[in-house]
Protein backbone atom coordinates (compact mmCIF):
# COMPACT_ATOMS: atom_id res chain seq x y z
CA UNK A 1 0.00 0.00 0.00
CA UNK A 2 1.07 3.53 -0.66
CA UNK A 3 0.16 4.77 2.85
CA UNK A 4 3.11 6.39 4.54
CA UNK A 5 3.72 4.88 7.95
CA UNK A 6 5.00 7.47 10.41
CA UNK A 7 7.38 6.12 13.09
CA UNK A 8 5.79 6.30 16.55
CA UNK A 9 8.64 8.39 17.96
CA UNK A 10 7.41 11.26 15.75
CA UNK A 11 4.00 11.02 17.44
CA UNK A 12 5.55 11.02 20.92
CA UNK A 13 7.74 14.02 20.05
CA UNK A 14 4.75 15.99 18.72
CA UNK A 15 2.76 15.04 21.81
CA UNK A 16 5.58 16.38 24.01
CA UNK A 17 5.73 19.68 22.13
CA UNK A 18 1.93 20.06 22.32
CA UNK A 19 1.98 19.54 26.09
CA UNK A 20 4.84 22.04 26.56
CA UNK A 21 2.95 24.58 24.43
CA UNK A 22 -0.17 24.09 26.55
CA UNK A 23 1.81 24.81 29.74
CA UNK A 24 3.42 27.80 27.99
CA UNK A 25 0.11 29.32 26.91
CA UNK A 26 -1.32 28.99 30.44
CA UNK A 27 1.83 30.57 31.91
CA UNK A 28 1.86 33.49 29.49
CA UNK A 29 -1.82 34.18 30.21
CA UNK A 30 -0.89 35.24 33.76
CA UNK A 31 1.67 37.80 32.59
CA UNK A 32 0.30 41.18 31.58
CA UNK A 33 1.44 41.87 28.01
CA UNK A 34 -1.36 44.27 27.17
CA UNK A 35 -2.73 43.61 23.67
CA UNK A 36 -0.01 41.03 23.06
CA UNK A 37 -1.65 38.48 25.38
CA UNK A 38 -4.13 37.67 22.59
CA UNK A 39 -1.35 37.62 20.00
CA UNK A 40 0.74 35.20 22.09
CA UNK A 41 -2.24 32.92 22.86
CA UNK A 42 -3.33 32.73 19.21
CA UNK A 43 0.22 32.27 17.92
CA UNK A 44 0.71 29.27 20.21
CA UNK A 45 -2.75 27.90 19.26
CA UNK A 46 -1.99 28.21 15.54
CA UNK A 47 1.39 26.53 16.07
CA UNK A 48 -0.23 23.64 17.96
CA UNK A 49 -2.97 23.24 15.34
CA UNK A 50 -0.34 23.21 12.56
CA UNK A 51 1.56 20.40 14.29
CA UNK A 52 -1.64 18.36 14.68
CA UNK A 53 -2.56 18.89 11.02
CA UNK A 54 0.90 18.11 9.64
CA UNK A 55 1.81 15.10 11.77
CA UNK A 56 -1.22 13.59 13.54
CA UNK A 57 -3.40 14.15 10.46
CA UNK A 58 -0.57 13.14 8.08
CA UNK A 59 -0.92 16.17 5.80
CA UNK A 60 2.87 16.42 5.65
CA UNK A 61 2.82 13.04 3.88
CA UNK A 62 -0.37 13.58 1.87
CA UNK A 63 -1.03 14.28 -1.80
CA UNK A 64 -0.93 17.81 -3.23
CA UNK A 65 -4.69 17.68 -3.64
CA UNK A 66 -5.09 17.25 0.12
CA UNK A 67 -2.68 20.14 0.69
CA UNK A 68 -4.82 22.32 -1.58
CA UNK A 69 -8.01 21.44 0.29
CA UNK A 70 -6.43 22.15 3.69
CA UNK A 71 -4.94 25.45 2.49
CA UNK A 72 -8.34 26.31 0.99
CA UNK A 73 -10.08 25.89 4.34
CA UNK A 74 -7.59 28.22 6.01
CA UNK A 75 -7.90 30.73 3.16
CA UNK A 76 -11.71 30.84 3.29
CA UNK A 77 -11.70 31.08 7.07
CA UNK A 78 -9.29 33.99 6.63
CA UNK A 79 -11.74 35.73 4.26
CA UNK A 80 -14.58 35.21 6.74
CA UNK A 81 -12.60 36.65 9.67
CA UNK A 82 -10.61 39.39 7.92
CA UNK A 83 -13.37 40.98 5.86
CA UNK A 84 -15.95 40.91 8.65
CA UNK A 85 -13.59 42.25 11.31
CA UNK A 86 -12.23 44.78 8.82
CA UNK A 87 -15.76 46.11 8.53
CA UNK A 88 -16.60 46.16 12.24
CA UNK A 89 -13.28 47.65 13.38
CA UNK A 90 -13.37 50.55 10.90
CA UNK A 91 -16.79 51.98 11.82
CA UNK A 92 -16.08 55.24 13.65
CA UNK A 93 -19.67 55.67 14.87
CA UNK A 94 -19.51 52.50 16.88
CA UNK A 95 -18.91 53.04 20.62
CA UNK A 96 -16.94 50.31 22.34
CA UNK A 97 -16.84 49.24 25.96
CA UNK B 1 -2.05 -5.92 -7.88
CA UNK B 2 -4.25 -8.90 -8.84
CA UNK B 3 -4.64 -10.17 -5.29
CA UNK B 4 -5.37 -6.67 -4.00
CA UNK B 5 -8.02 -6.09 -6.67
CA UNK B 6 -10.07 -8.92 -5.19
CA UNK B 7 -9.94 -7.58 -1.65
CA UNK B 8 -13.48 -7.81 -0.19
CA UNK B 9 -13.31 -4.17 1.01
CA UNK B 10 -12.47 -2.80 -2.45
CA UNK B 11 -15.43 -0.98 -4.02
CA UNK B 12 -15.82 -1.67 -7.74
CA UNK B 13 -15.31 1.95 -8.86
CA UNK B 14 -11.71 2.00 -7.58
CA UNK B 15 -8.62 0.49 -9.18
CA UNK B 16 -6.93 -0.30 -5.91
CA UNK B 17 -7.32 -0.02 -2.16
CA UNK B 18 -4.66 2.70 -2.18
CA UNK B 19 -6.77 4.79 -4.55
CA UNK B 20 -9.87 4.06 -2.47
CA UNK B 21 -8.19 5.22 0.75
CA UNK B 22 -6.91 8.35 -0.98
CA UNK B 23 -10.43 9.20 -2.20
CA UNK B 24 -11.86 8.60 1.29
CA UNK B 25 -9.18 10.79 2.87
CA UNK B 26 -9.86 13.61 0.43
CA UNK B 27 -13.62 13.30 1.04
CA UNK B 28 -13.06 13.51 4.78
CA UNK B 29 -10.92 16.62 4.34
CA UNK B 30 -13.61 18.30 2.24
CA UNK B 31 -16.08 17.58 5.05
CA UNK B 32 -13.61 19.03 7.57
CA UNK B 33 -13.42 22.23 5.49
CA UNK B 34 -17.16 22.66 6.01
CA UNK B 35 -16.60 22.02 9.72
CA UNK B 36 -13.85 24.67 9.86
CA UNK B 37 -16.28 27.23 8.43
CA UNK B 38 -19.11 25.96 10.67
CA UNK B 39 -17.04 26.64 13.81
CA UNK B 40 -15.49 29.64 12.04
CA UNK B 41 -18.80 31.50 12.19
CA UNK B 42 -18.88 31.08 15.96
CA UNK B 43 -15.26 32.17 16.35
CA UNK B 44 -16.12 35.22 14.25
CA UNK B 45 -19.10 36.03 16.49
CA UNK B 46 -16.81 35.70 19.48
CA UNK B 47 -14.25 38.06 17.89
CA UNK B 48 -16.89 40.69 17.10
CA UNK B 49 -18.46 40.72 20.57
CA UNK B 50 -15.14 40.55 22.31
CA UNK B 51 -13.99 43.64 20.41
CA UNK B 52 -17.23 45.35 21.53
CA UNK B 53 -17.07 44.38 25.21
CA UNK B 54 -13.48 43.46 26.18
CA UNK B 55 -13.94 44.28 29.89
CA UNK B 56 -17.07 42.14 30.29
CA UNK B 57 -15.49 39.24 28.38
CA UNK B 58 -12.41 39.44 30.56
CA UNK B 59 -14.46 39.45 33.77
CA UNK B 60 -16.68 36.58 32.59
CA UNK B 61 -13.67 34.55 31.44
CA UNK B 62 -12.31 34.81 34.99
CA UNK B 63 -15.26 32.73 36.21
CA UNK B 64 -14.18 29.67 34.21
CA UNK B 65 -12.09 27.03 35.98
CA UNK B 66 -8.62 27.24 34.45
CA UNK B 67 -7.50 24.04 36.22
CA UNK B 68 -10.35 21.91 34.83
CA UNK B 69 -9.97 23.55 31.41
CA UNK B 70 -6.22 22.89 31.43
CA UNK B 71 -6.67 19.25 32.50
CA UNK B 72 -9.21 18.78 29.71
CA UNK B 73 -6.75 20.23 27.19
CA UNK B 74 -4.12 17.71 28.33
CA UNK B 75 -6.70 14.88 28.22
CA UNK B 76 -7.68 15.77 24.66
CA UNK B 77 -4.09 16.08 23.42
CA UNK B 78 -3.33 12.69 24.97
CA UNK B 79 -6.38 11.22 23.22
CA UNK B 80 -5.03 12.59 19.94
CA UNK B 81 -1.75 10.77 20.61
CA UNK B 82 -3.53 7.47 21.31
CA UNK B 83 -5.66 8.01 18.18
CA UNK B 84 -2.52 8.52 16.10
CA UNK B 85 -1.07 5.36 17.65
CA UNK B 86 -4.30 3.49 16.83
CA UNK B 87 -3.93 4.50 13.16
CA UNK B 88 -0.31 3.38 13.28
CA UNK B 89 -1.33 -0.01 14.72
CA UNK B 90 -4.03 -0.36 12.04
CA UNK B 91 -1.55 0.38 9.25
CA UNK B 92 0.73 -2.38 10.58
CA UNK B 93 -2.19 -4.78 11.01
CA UNK B 94 -1.69 -5.03 14.79
CA UNK B 95 -5.32 -5.80 15.63
CA UNK B 96 -4.94 -6.19 19.40
CA UNK B 97 -2.95 -2.97 19.78
CA UNK B 98 -5.43 -1.15 17.55
CA UNK B 99 -8.34 -2.24 19.76
CA UNK B 100 -6.48 -1.19 22.92
CA UNK B 101 -5.66 2.28 21.58
CA UNK B 102 -9.23 2.79 20.36
CA UNK B 103 -10.54 1.94 23.83
CA UNK B 104 -8.03 4.30 25.49
CA UNK B 105 -9.02 7.08 23.07
CA UNK B 106 -12.71 6.56 23.81
CA UNK B 107 -12.06 6.51 27.58
CA UNK B 108 -10.10 9.78 27.37
CA UNK B 109 -12.92 11.31 25.31
CA UNK B 110 -15.39 10.24 27.99
CA UNK B 111 -13.18 11.70 30.74
CA UNK B 112 -13.17 15.00 28.81
CA UNK B 113 -16.99 14.99 28.64
CA UNK B 114 -17.22 14.11 32.35
CA UNK B 115 -15.02 17.06 33.35
CA UNK B 116 -17.04 19.29 31.00
CA UNK B 117 -20.23 18.13 32.75
CA UNK B 118 -18.74 19.08 36.13
CA UNK B 119 -17.91 22.54 34.75
CA UNK B 120 -21.43 22.94 33.37
CA UNK B 121 -22.86 21.92 36.75
CA UNK B 122 -20.80 24.65 38.46
CA UNK B 123 -22.08 27.22 35.97
CA UNK B 124 -25.69 26.27 36.69
CA UNK B 125 -25.06 26.41 40.45
CA UNK B 126 -23.43 29.86 40.13
CA UNK B 127 -26.29 31.24 37.97
CA UNK B 128 -23.91 31.83 35.09
CA UNK B 129 -26.23 30.24 32.55
CA UNK B 130 -27.76 32.96 30.31
CA UNK B 131 -31.45 33.49 30.91
CA UNK B 132 -33.88 34.83 33.50
CA UNK B 133 -31.84 33.67 36.52
CA UNK B 134 -28.46 34.92 35.22
CA UNK B 135 -26.45 36.75 37.87
CA UNK B 136 -23.23 38.67 37.42
CA UNK B 137 -21.56 41.79 38.78
CA UNK B 138 -23.89 44.66 37.90
CA UNK B 139 -21.68 46.62 35.51
CA UNK B 140 -21.13 43.56 33.26
CA UNK B 141 -24.53 41.89 33.81
CA UNK B 142 -25.73 42.22 30.19
CA UNK B 143 -22.53 41.73 28.26
CA UNK B 144 -21.26 38.83 30.37
CA UNK B 145 -24.39 36.97 29.23
CA UNK B 146 -23.11 37.21 25.66
CA UNK B 147 -19.83 35.63 26.74
CA UNK B 148 -21.59 32.78 28.52
CA UNK B 149 -23.99 32.27 25.60
CA UNK B 150 -20.97 31.83 23.33
CA UNK B 151 -19.27 29.65 25.95
CA UNK B 152 -22.20 27.22 26.09
CA UNK B 153 -22.83 27.19 22.33
CA UNK B 154 -19.17 26.70 21.39
CA UNK B 155 -18.27 24.14 24.07
CA UNK B 156 -21.66 22.47 23.61
CA UNK B 157 -21.18 22.09 19.86
CA UNK B 158 -17.67 20.83 20.54
CA UNK B 159 -19.04 18.31 23.07
CA UNK B 160 -21.58 17.05 20.49
CA UNK B 161 -18.67 16.47 18.12
CA UNK B 162 -16.87 14.55 20.87
CA UNK B 163 -19.94 12.32 21.41
CA UNK B 164 -20.17 11.63 17.66
CA UNK B 165 -16.42 10.94 17.62
CA UNK B 166 -16.73 8.38 20.42
CA UNK B 167 -19.65 6.72 18.57
CA UNK B 168 -17.55 6.54 15.38
CA UNK B 169 -14.64 4.99 17.28
CA UNK B 170 -17.02 2.45 18.85
CA UNK B 171 -18.03 1.32 15.34
CA UNK B 172 -14.34 1.19 14.38
CA UNK B 173 -13.63 -0.93 17.45
CA UNK B 174 -16.36 -3.39 16.40
CA UNK B 175 -14.91 -3.50 12.87
CA UNK B 176 -11.44 -4.18 14.29
CA UNK B 177 -12.85 -6.83 16.62
CA UNK B 178 -14.54 -8.60 13.69
CA UNK B 179 -11.27 -8.53 11.76
CA UNK B 180 -12.53 -6.17 9.05
CA UNK B 181 -9.61 -3.79 9.55
CA UNK B 182 -6.34 -5.07 8.10
CA UNK B 183 -3.05 -3.44 7.11
CA UNK B 184 -4.49 -3.32 3.53
CA UNK B 185 -7.71 -1.76 4.76
CA UNK B 186 -6.80 0.75 7.49
CA UNK B 187 -8.56 3.64 5.71
CA UNK B 188 -11.64 3.70 7.97
CA UNK B 189 -9.40 4.13 11.05
CA UNK B 190 -7.40 6.86 9.29
CA UNK B 191 -10.40 9.00 8.39
CA UNK B 192 -11.99 8.47 11.81
CA UNK B 193 -8.69 9.72 13.19
CA UNK B 194 -8.87 12.83 10.99
CA UNK B 195 -12.23 13.67 12.55
CA UNK B 196 -10.94 13.07 16.07
CA UNK B 197 -7.89 15.29 15.54
CA UNK B 198 -10.08 18.04 14.05
CA UNK B 199 -12.20 18.10 17.22
CA UNK B 200 -8.95 18.36 19.20
CA UNK B 201 -7.90 21.37 17.08
CA UNK B 202 -11.19 23.15 17.80
CA UNK B 203 -10.48 22.78 21.52
CA UNK B 204 -6.89 24.04 21.04
CA UNK B 205 -8.48 27.37 20.01
CA UNK B 206 -11.42 27.31 22.43
CA UNK B 207 -9.23 26.85 25.50
CA UNK B 208 -7.18 30.08 25.26
CA UNK B 209 -10.07 32.16 23.88
CA UNK B 210 -12.55 31.15 26.57
CA UNK B 211 -10.41 30.35 29.63
CA UNK B 212 -7.27 32.43 29.31
CA UNK B 213 -8.31 35.91 28.14
CA UNK B 214 -7.90 38.62 30.70
CA UNK B 215 -6.39 36.16 33.18
CA UNK B 216 -3.56 38.61 33.96
CA UNK B 217 -5.95 41.45 34.83
List the defining traits of the structure above.
heterodimer, A: 97 residues, mainly alpha, flat, B: 217 residues, Four Helix Bundle (Hemerythrin (Met), subunit A), 7 helices, 77% helix, 0% strand, elongated
List the helices and strands and how they pair.
The complex is a heterodimer of chains A (97) and B (217).
Chain A: H1 8-29, H2 36-56, H3 64-88
Helix pairs in contact in A: 1-2
Chain B: H1 2-5, H2 17-52, H3 54-61, H4 66-91, H5 95-125, H6 141-177, H7 187-212
Task: Give a concise summary.
Chain A is mainly alpha-helical. Chain A has helices at residues 8-29, 36-56, 64-88. The mean pLDDT of chain B is 94.
Order of helices and strands of chain A: HHH
- Count of folded domains of chain A: 1
| CATH fold annotation of chain B | Four Helix Bundle (Hemerythrin (Met), subunit A)
Distance between the termini of chain A: 58 Å
Low-confidence stretches of chain A at least 5 residues in length (pLDDT < 50)?
A: none
Total number of strands of chain B:
0
Shape of chain A: flat
**Separate helix tally of chain B:** 7
What global shape of chain B is seen?
elongated
Low-confidence stretches of chain B: none
CATH uppermost class of chain B: Mainly Alpha
Assembly state of the chains shown? heterodimer
The proportion of strand residues of chain A reads under 5%
How large a portion of the residues of chain B is in β-strands, by DSSP E? under 5%
Can you characterise this structure?
The complex is a heterodimer of chains A (97) and B (217). By secondary structure, chain A is mainly α. Helices cover 70% and strands 0% of the residues of chain A. In chain A, 23% of the residues are buried. In chain B, 77% of the residues lie in helices and 0% in strands. Chains A and B meet through helix 1, helix 2 and helix 3 of A and helix 2, helix 4 and helix 7 of B.
